[in-house]
Design a protein that fits this description.
Blueprint: H1 8-20, E1 30-31, E2 35-37, E3 42-52, E4 58-67, H2 71-76, E5 85-89, E6 95-97, E7 104-107, E8 110-113, H3 120-126, E9 133-137, E10 142-150, E11 157-163, H4 164-169, H5 171-196, H6 202-215, E12 223-224, H7 225-242, E13 247-253, H8 256-263, H9 265-280, E14 288-293, E15 296-301, H10 306-321, E16 325-326, E17 331-332, E18 336-342, H11 348-364, E19 370-372
Parallel strand pairs: 12-14, 18-19
Antiparallel strand pairs: 1-3, 2-3, 3-4, 5-6, 5-11, 7-8, 9-10, 10-11, 13-15, 13-18, 14-15, 16-17
Length: 375
């Protein structure tokens, strides 16, 4: 009902259900590649599994985002000998877990996933060629002996490697690594769920909570205005380097003061939360939605031209206005007006002014509509 059907985790889950075709047991789960979960740019993966009824009809999807915080602790336990280690990459070559490195790279430009596609064995694995052997690893400046295995039901790859000198001097350690790799490919999806349930270290937990608190609107759960200002420079940099434009849209709730005055601020808070939830449900993972202040919201549609940005805005307008909002006693139809602006190299402050101007043009024209700045 809220636009999740096209998400990768939903499509992957449905494909697994169709492949299963009401066979024995249950449909296999869908395990995604790594991504930066919002808010906080936390490295994570998603896992989804079909929920079936007694007639083996698919009636829903159980879905979870899983932080990778503890996964490296798990692969650290798979280290062997003096130099042997196991690490995991996803189907895009991004690091999922490593005994010595974190999956993300934090720099002045922002946060990104650590790319391992240039490691010789990873590059060979991603191309579908299985040929274990000796490789020069540029990240360590050493020759290593390496092999890999795919994780069933996913695009993940588990790589085991060891310094060549150490490997040939301790053959038993190398054989143990191969056995560990075989078992790890089967157990990794189960172990990751048990590992993420453990408490993180107190200092890490407190730091993460402070980041989330400082960047999240407590009422709607959306990113707040402060987090938007800290992210826009990275979004502009990505757009200019890739050549892909992006679109912003300012929108607010039509006659929201009347809703508060008529039904009270508690119901008004419910309206804000429901509009936030409906809007987020229409967006891709890479798109961002912020609570700008009061009843105003700011949308960023990345890698988008003006036509697609207008379409996304129109979809949000329909999703909000087509279904009344109810608390069980009162049911009210609420509409929104949106102003859309395309990034053309202007300062972000200028874009926000243009989108805001388009928004108020929509208000003057009768509300409940999308107005494009260029129009």
């Amino acid at each position: 009902d809220r636009g999740y059907a096209w998400r990768e985790w939903a499509n992957g889950c449905r494909d697994n259900y169709r492949t299963w075709a009401r066979g024995a047991g249950y449909p296999g789960p869908f395990l995604s590649d790594a991504f930066l979960s919002q808010p906080g740019d936390v490295p994570a993966v998603s896992l989804s599994v079909a929920v079936v009824d007694h007639q083996k009809e698919m009636i829903g999807i159980l879905y979870a985002n899983i932080s990778l915080a503890h996964f490296s602790d798990f692969v650290r336990t798979l280290s062997y000998g003096r130099t042997g280690k196991v690490f995991v990459v996803d189907g895009g070559g991004n690091l999922v877990a490593h005994p010595e490195l974190s999956p993300e790279v934090r720099s002045t430009a922002g946060v990104s996933l650590r790319y391992f596609g240039e490691i010789p064995m990873v590059r060979r694995a991603l191309s579908g060629v299985f040929r274990p052997g000796l490789f020069f690893d540029p990240s360590y400046g050493k020759t290593v002996i390496s092999t890999y295995s795919s994780v069933p039901g996913s695009r993940w790859i588990v790589v085991a490697e060891q310094d060549a000198d150490d490997a040939f001097s301790v053959i038993r350690g190398y054989l143990a690594a191969v056995l560990i790799l075989a078992f790890a490919s089967v157990l990794v999806s189960v172990r990751v769920f048990s590992l993420v349930s453990r408490e993180t270290a107190e200092a890490t937990r407190q730091h993460r909570e402070l980041v989330i608190i400082s960047e999240t609107d407590p009422l709607t759960g959306l990113l707040n205005r402060r987090s938007m200002l800290s992210r826009m420079s990275h979004i502009v940099e990505d757009s200019e380097s890739s050549g892909n434009p992006f679109v912003i849209a300012m929108f607010d709730i039509d006659d929201f003061k009347m809703v508060n005055d008529t039904y009270g601020h508690v119901f008004g808070d419910l309206v804000l939360r429901e509009i936030a939830a409906r809007s987020v449900g229409t967006l891709r993972v890479e798109d961002l939605l912020f609570r700008w202040g009061g009843e105003e919201f700011l949308l960023v549609v990345r890698d988008s031209d003006l036509a697609r940005g207008r379409a996304v805005a129109e979809k949000i307008r329909r999703v909000v206005g087509d279904t009344p909002i109810s608390d069980g006693r009162v049911s009210v139809t609420v509409t929104i007006t949106l102003g859309v602006c395309l990034y053309r190299g202007d300062p972000i402050d200028r874009m926000i002014v243009d989108a805001d101007t388009a928004l108020y043009e929509g208000k003057r024209a009768g509300k409940n509509r999308v107005v494009v700045s260029e129009d």
